[in-house]
Amino acid sequence: MPSLPDVMTPDVERLAAQAPRGAPTASHIDPHLAGPLVEFLMRTGDNALILGHRVSQWCGHSPALEEDIALANQALDLVGQCQLWLGLAGEVEGRGRSADHLAYRRDAAAFRNVLLVELPNGDFGQTLMRQFLFDAFHIELLRALTRSADPRVAEIAAKAQKEVAYHLERSADLVIRLGDGTDESRARMQAALTYLFPYTGEMMHDDAVDRALADAGIAPLPSSLRADWDRTVREVLAEATLTHPGQTYQHGIAGQGGGKRGVHTEHLGFILAEMQFLQRAYPDATW
Amino acid sequence: MYAQLVKSEGAKSREEMTPEEIAFQERIDRGEKIEPKEWMPEGYRKTLIRQIGQHAHSEIVGQLPEGNWITRAPTLERKQILLAKVQDEAGHGLYLYSAAETLGVSRDELLAALHSGKMKYSSIFNYPTLNWADIGAVGWLVDGAAIMNQVPLQRTSFGPYSRAMIRICKEESFHQRQGYDIMMKMCAGTPEQKAMAQDALNRFWYPALMMFGPSDKDSVHSAQSMAWKIKINTNDELRQKFVDQTVPQARYLGLTVPDENLTWNEDKGGHDFSEPDWSEFFEVIAGNGPCNAERLNARVKAWDDGAWFREGLMAHAGKAEARRRAAQVAAE
Predict the structure, then answer these.
(1) Which residue of chain B has the CA closest to A68?
(2) What band does B14 get if pLDDT is binned at 50, 70 and 90?
(3) Which single residue of A95, B81, B109, B121 has CA 20 to 30 Å from A88?
(4) So what's the ipTM on this one?
């Protein structure tokens, strides 16, 4: 586990210093791609922000001291990643919005995270299963993004990938141990899987934004990550002695819903009400 | 610090000591460190378990008032700093429980004593964090008071405790600076922010003074602990040092310390100041502070709700071990 917070890693400073130099600035980007790129960066940044928020809610309340430490560390990684992704989104957008502005001043309909990450923590098993299902996708996405045609995207992905490789190692390990633990731990992990699995398809569902960025070599088609995600999930569930839910209905793809399109569950509004409270109540203050 | 009213065993005069006890006291007087496997008087062991255990409990309960603002931290950077800080507190808890374990008590036993109310944690964590400036005040005042006590404890006689303190002090000084940084930002901000900062100081000033424990004249447990170098300075010495350090910092922020009797005393080279309300202190210690019930309930709930998780991991470890043995037998 990386034991130090990422707030002050040399990496971040280096990325910040490089951003204005060699990397293409907003003006260099094909104007047709700027819109989809901003959209994609918000999706990736919002996933990290909202999952980081959920994970941080366990601080001081988890089942063991080691878990308190690990979850705080993971929340720290995710909020740090969100800051980089949203910072770049604001820069590409070119309307002067900072990462903080995007995090704290958008309403729910402007958030682009998938539904999975905003679902309630539930018991600790549900939190771990949600983390595992997301980590298994997140690592594949970041791995592909390290080869992005946009060097800024590739740099952020390279940094995040190291952290997320550890997140996945940890969440997969705990899913295995709790699935193959006691009858109760197995039942809880199975119940969590049954509840969460219908929210996984949205992560790997392609839309017009994804296709535009894939054509430009900036980001992978989400559907191209499915085979690797599926293999990881099947292997871990098998070792955990849990039953794969098979083909189930998938939220957020058909109909009007879907976090990537800004149509969320009821939960997101409450997350934002809490998270954005100070910025909304004291709009003129700096903190 | 975070250890108040730790009951020490009664002090013995040299005539009452056994030869072993005399030799032990001489080692301490020479400034030698006592290590876990070496002989030590039973009273020394018991007192240390109480003190280190109470300190560890304070670290983990201390996650709660600050954790209260993680989801509402006003910027992404403040959120990361606060997360890192709360993570540090949990880490301090971990070192300290480990230090206590070297004295022959398990973490589970110590937690059971916390949950049943038999062991205490610092009174300060029974006060609520009501506005964002409270997070600044906790770092500035609470961590500031803790450092005052913990810096001398780096020289404490028990090796594992001393080494834990050296590591903890490095992080605590970062915590205090981040707290003061929040206060500076708030005091240079809008009138509402400045008011939050003053409000936070008003509520945390006296509870911070209480952290050092009752006045020396009422402190019954100090003599033996000081002879054993488990405790290095008296409560009043540390409190005075804290006030003298903090008053100019408050002035720099443009905040008013909520004490009409606060004056500089040229003769003693320190401030005169009002004592905290000790009846309030004893009520908080007795369980009647503003947040005692919430804090303890939160810890008990975390433990109880997590039982299945811990049992699941133990069961898996058992199965994995059995499989490993079976494979070994098959191979032979």
Answers:
(1) B90
(2) confident
(3) B81
(4) 0.93
Which CATH number goes with the domain that contains A153?
A: 1.20.1260.10
Residue A215 resides in a domain = yes
Q: Quick check: A283 contacting B, CB < 8 Å?
A: no
Kindly tell me if the per-residue pLDDT of B8 is higher than 80: no
Mutate which of B61, B64, B76, B321 to test chain A, going by most A C-beta atoms within 10 A?
Answer: B76
* Encoded amino acid at B31, one letter: G
The verdict on pTM exceeding 0.95 is no
Q: Is the CB of residue A157 less than 8 Å from the CB of residue A146?
A: yes
Which residue range is the domain that position A275 belongs to? 30-280
Query: Are A99 and B76 inside 8 Å of each other by CB?
Result: yes
Decide: A49 and A75 in contact? Cβ < 8 Å: no
Task: Give CA separation, A135 vs A49, A74, A139, A259, B75, in Å.
Answer: 14, 11, 6, 18, 25
Tokens 């070496």 label which residue? B38
- The 10s digit of each residue's pLDDT in B260-315 is 999 999 999 999 999 999 999 999 999 999 999 999 999 999 999 999 999 999 99
CB proximity A239 to B under 8 Å: no
User: Within a domain: residue A7?
Assistant: no
Out of A66, A68, A99, the one facing B63 most closely (by C-beta) is: A68
Q: Do residues B69 and B129 make contact, with C-beta atoms less than 8 angstroms apart?
A: yes
Please indicate, yes or no, if residue A190 is contained in any of the structural domains: yes
What is residue B291's DSSP assignment? T
Number of residue pairs across A and B with CB atoms under 8 Å? 155
Would you call B192 and A184 a contact, using CB atoms and an 8 Å cutoff?
Answer: no
Mean per-residue pLDDT over chain B, rounded: 94
Q: Would A70 be classed as within a structural domain?
A: yes
